Amino acid sequence: NGVCLPPEKRRLGMVFQSYAIWPHMSVSENVAYGIQAQGASRAEVNEKVAKALELVGLSGLGERNATKLSGGQQQRVSLARALAYNPRVLLFDEPLSNLDAKLRERMRVELANLIKELKLTAIYVTHDQAEAMVMSDRIIVMKDGRIQQEGDPHATYNEPSNSFVADFIGVTNILEGKAGERENGKGLWVEVPSLDTRILCAKGIDRDIPAGSDLLVTVRPEYIELGEEGSNDENVFRGQVSDAVYLGQSWDCLVQSGNFELRVHVRGDADIRTGQSVTMNISPSRCVVLSD
């Protein structure tokens, strides 16, 4: 039934964090290792090695010493070796963590496109949230060996199930509050003492939430708008910018409101100054009540 098979008979491809490139072998010899271990003929080995190297953009480098290549090229050798014997499943163990930031970003896209092109199933282990978003059709967030949430990247980011997922995936604000009344067609009012106000939440409320019960609400920094009062009159309150860091494409701000410091991300061309009084506006659809 396929359960008690040794690893070499499972048709699994493995790409390691450390590349696992053999220094005494050429690029082609590294890629050929798994196929040769299966007893393939020389002609079949040569054909599959050439095809795998072409897939990863290393055609013409087969005779090079594998460890003399750049980090990105060595990772491609590792990937070619995993692809060469036509695996049913590819396993990735943080394969890009040893690369510099720009190369890592490029390799993310290349890997994702290649996996889709070959119609392979891939299980990708990473602690890099951005990498998980780019690479995945489905994300599983785990804590202490237990699944906390499973779903597509958009839902995992925008509708986290609990505070661990909300905090682990990206940056967020987590507010303590008490459940108030429901407003038909709009959401659940939540009293937030630290902000000295109440906010209307439209996500995470499809369950029984007794009035007065303690709960947590998450709001992503980029979903808090600064400036004039907008169309979401339910969630408008004021604060003062206590810190602002310019990141080029955006400002990463801390805004003091009541007894809470909110993390807020705004566009880089915004006029932001420390000490500035601002109006904040949050759409109810961006306020998520967490299960814990």
The helix/strand class is alpha+beta
> Helix coverage percent of residues?
25-40%
Count of strand segments: 15
In the CATH scheme, the class of the largest domain would be Alpha Beta
Give a quick account of the main beta sheet: strands, pairing sense, barrel closure: 5 strands, antiparallel
Count of helical regions: 7
Helix-strand sequence: EHHHEHEHEEHHEEEEEEEEEE
Global outline: elongated
The CATH homologous superfamily of the largest domain is called P-loop containing nucleotide triphosphate hydrolases
CATH level-two architecture of the largest domain: 3-Layer(aba) Sandwich
The proportion of strand residues reads 25-35%
- The CATH topology assignment of the largest domain is Rossmann fold
Report how far the terminal alpha carbons are from each other. Answer: 40 Å
**Mean residue pLDDT:** 90
Oligomer status: single chain
Rounded to an integer in angstroms, the radius of gyration calculated over CA atoms is: 25 Å
